[in-house]
Design brief:
Layout lengths: L2 H10 L7 H14 L6 E7 L2 E8 L5 E9 L13 E3 L2 E3 L7 H16 L6 E6 L7 H9 L4 E7 L8 E6 L1 E10 L14 H13 L19 E9 L9 E10 L5 H11 L4 E7 L4 E2 L5 H14 L4 E5 L6 H4 L4 E5 L3 E2 L7 E3 H22 L1
Length: 370
């Protein structure tokens, strides 16, 4: 396959999360791409989630390595599904997040097949990562014994000079405030749920401070953060609100626990307000001295021609599902910008280099495991 052509083809599919018809067209394209290649291609389907593309060179529950990612994208104007190459940059929805690297995963699979590498290798691509990865969870639940020694994860940002070794734990919490309706002209006869919500918000902010581009950036950002993602309260202007809700997005480091979060939230509640943990996960933390990670880093530095740094990020990654099953997760992405924005692009040279790093790493892995 021609890597750049495949990326362009993938971007043209309008695989916005939930667009089932277009997602199915993209999956059919991927199936056809591997016709007569020797790969085993399955589209996993679940009643509760969108499909997952599962490609492997052998049937197994234990893989030596696999590439993990997604094919869905966030919404965009029509023009962004007509990719453009300019000054070495490929512009289009999904160019950086992450159709370029889905194509890199395909390239790695073809490399393993064509060179008959004696490793068990797979590619897993979900189709609803942008809205919570229910498909990945359904896939993993349906394959409880599925494991991989190494997981190659390219869905971690946009800087090829950084090798990510830590991702925070995303936890979403719903605050619910209950009040009592009354006419807006007689507030003493009601209980304002909006006020209750804001009082609790103020208490929480004493523990998790407000951060903004308008404020000085902390010198070290590896600490627990919180942003208020959604706020709803009240019906009309002249009625005291009897119900209000807020969705909170916590990102916890590996030094924090959900139990401690509960303690902090419990201490911040005021009468009439309670909370629900909507979803929780786990941080992904890798040993920077792990020999496989150091092997990968060596190949990256050799191909790039300069030293690369380890990095910690606040974003979540689907590879946490495999980290919980004991995988060594190698998190590395190409360079680009505009993720989820109207100017999304990836530097094509960085994509080609990621592809080369992966194939050289897989060749070395095959020799080491022989």
């Amino acid at each position: 396959m021609k890597l750049t052509d495949t990326i362009i083809d993938l971007i043209k599919f309008r695989t916005e999360t939930g667009n089932a018809a277009e997602i199915d067209k993209c999956l059919a394209y991927c199936e056809k791409l591997f016709e007569n290649s020797g790969a085993i291609v399955t589209i996993f389907r679940s009643e509760k989630a969108s499909p997952v593309l599962f490609i492997r060179n052998v049937e197994s529950n234990e893989y030596d390595a696999l590439c993990l990612g997604h094919l869905d994208v966030v919404p965009a104007d029509d023009a962004m599904f007509n990719p453009v190459i300019k000054d070495g940059k490929l512009f289009g929805r999904g160019a950086l997040d992450m159709k370029s690297f889905a194509a890199v995963a395909f390239n790695s699979m073809f490399y393993v097949l064509e060179n008959k590498l004696p490793i068990k290798f797979a590619v897993i691509l979900s189709t609803d990562e942008e809205k919570g990865s229910a498909s990945t969870h359904a896939f993993m639940d349906a394959h409880p014994d599925l494991k991989a020694k190494i997981v190659l994860d390219n869905d971690v940002g946009g800087d090829i000079s950084k090798l990510v070794t830590k991702c925070k734990n995303p936890i979403f919490v719903k605050l619910i405030a209950e009040g009592k309706e009354a006419h807006g002209s007689t507030p003493w006869e009601g209980i304002d749920a909006n006020e209750k919500l804001m009082m609790t918000w103020h208490n929480i902010r004493k523990i998790y401070p407000y951060l903004s581009k308008e404020l000085p950036k902390p010198s070290d950002t590896w600490f627990d953060t919180l942003h208020f993602a959604k706020i709803e309260g009240g019906q009309v202007s002249n009625i005291i609100s009897n119900h209000a809700e807020a969705l909170l997005d916590f990102r916890l480091t590996e030094n924090s626990t959900v139990e401690n979060l509960h303690k902090n939230l419990d201490s911040a509640m005021v009468d009439g307000v309670h909370y629900i943990i909507v979803s929780e996960s786990t941080p992904v933390v890798m040993d920077e001295e792990n020999p496989f990670i150091l092997d990968y880093k060596h190949f990256a530095e050799d191909i790039l021609g300069y030293k690369i740094d380890f990095e910690h990020i606040g974003g979540a990654t689907d590879s946490r599902s495999f980290a919980l099953r004991g995988s060594i997760v190698i998190m590395h992405s190409g360079t680009g910008d505009g993720m989820h924005a109207s100017n999304e692009y990836v530097e094509l040279d960085s994509v080609l280099k990621i592809a080369e790093i992966q194939t050289r790493f897989l060749s070395k892995l095959a020799k080491d495991l022989a």
